[in-house]
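Here is an idea for our session: we take a single protein and study its fold together. To get us started, please write out a protein record for me. Start from the sequence, derive the backbone structure tokens from it, and show both lines together. Go ahead whenever you are ready, and we will take it from there:
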Amino acid sequence: MALAVTLSIAGCSEEGPVEQPSAIQGGPTTSTETPSTALNGQASLGDQAMKEDVRIRMKDEPRLQAPVATNVAPTKQQFTLEFREAMDRTSVEAALRDQAKQYTEKEGAFGDGIVPSFDYRWASDRELDLTVGEISLPEPTFHSYQLSVSGAKTKSGRTLGETPSFKGVIERPNQLWKMSVDGKSSEPLTSFDSPYGIEMLDDSGKFLLLSRTTHYCQCDAPFEGIYTVYDVQEKKFIPYPNKLMTRYMGGGNFIADRRGFFYEQPEQGTEIPASDTAAAVRLNDYVHGAGFSQDRTRLIMAVGTREQERDLDLLVFDLKSGKEQRLSKVLVGRVPFSQSSDARLPVTFTDDGERVYVMMDTDTGHEKRYVYTWKTGKLEPLKLPLPDNSWGGFTRTTDGVYQFYYNAGIYKGTVKISEDTRGDGDWISGTHLLLRTEENPDAPKDSAYNRDIVVFDADKRAERKIASGIWNGTSVAGSSPDGKWIYLISGKHLTKP
């Protein structure tokens, strides 16, 4: 059980409670290839009347359309360029090359701008299939390219002005891995061709939330994106046309899907994948934060008016019966705001099966900490062994014996047993083992495989290494309910090939 907020968008990270972009919405479809395959039969962006001189889209992911800045794999990438009128083909090809070169000279390029190789296949004077060649770059690297046809000429001789551009930031795809807790065996559970953001939706790793941003910056600013639910066992992509959230914030008319995500009630005519785990919720309140109970049969929410920023109601909602329990104005304090912008963040609830933990901010920088007990139905102040002017985010063992405070170390109740262990960490289910990754000080400085996976045994007060030479972009995603496997987000190769 973790009481924390994490960030998973392109850019930097910071210590303390940071925001997580809204993520998800769901229901099964029949796609087994790519998200674009599952979109067949749905209205695509290409069906809309063209308002610009050109439409540039990724062929295997038409939801990514210029103007856009997004992550792309270094492998060959195919794009479709559709023009509003017949074009001079030679001028289009020249414009693509010239604009790519000009992009490398701009200060606004993401990392080092590069000019990729282009292969042109004209279907007609109004449609071009463009292939960007494979890009071979050393690791680590930060490069990008731009597709633009500004300056190209039409058949009638008109020169195009500034047109929407597609900026691709090179990133190798990540995969979901599982590893035995002794580190002796590991295997990838996915083989994605595209660089998705990956989030597990359940402890068993059955469903994943995949996301791709439509804007890019080296910052913590939240951006909209496109979302896909992925069935790991069936290898099915389930793309969604709207915003998906693992923690809901928005109007009171929304959908809660027990696979682990929310979305606002879509507009009439919007096609949403069918799901027998989705339940409609209709409230007169504005929801400042909603989360699932551990068994996903109930929702626990902070509600009020849309303009309200403090002293919210606590609302418990049974997804099957529709019954509510409301505790009026008991969440004393202020809703959280982004540390990098003025945007509101959802109030976050964390359930350990018996109790639900929630924190509110104050104008003085102190935390208001609360705990709701399922058995009694009461909300009470939460006492932690940390001052209330510091972040109290923590994760605890399944039996509640040990707590790991991200900014303070490992505790057993009020007694600190380890101060050296800080930062990220996850308890392996059903154990007293804290799982972490850390840099190996003996690894070569220029190596991309310089991380170790370690576990801290809270009972023995001892740490041991279970794997070394791990790719430096690896992160811990969780552990299986039986405590025999750990899940990792890593690259194509977990260790150096």
In short: Residues 2-33, 37-48 have pLDDT under 50 and may be disordered. The radius of gyration is 24 Å.
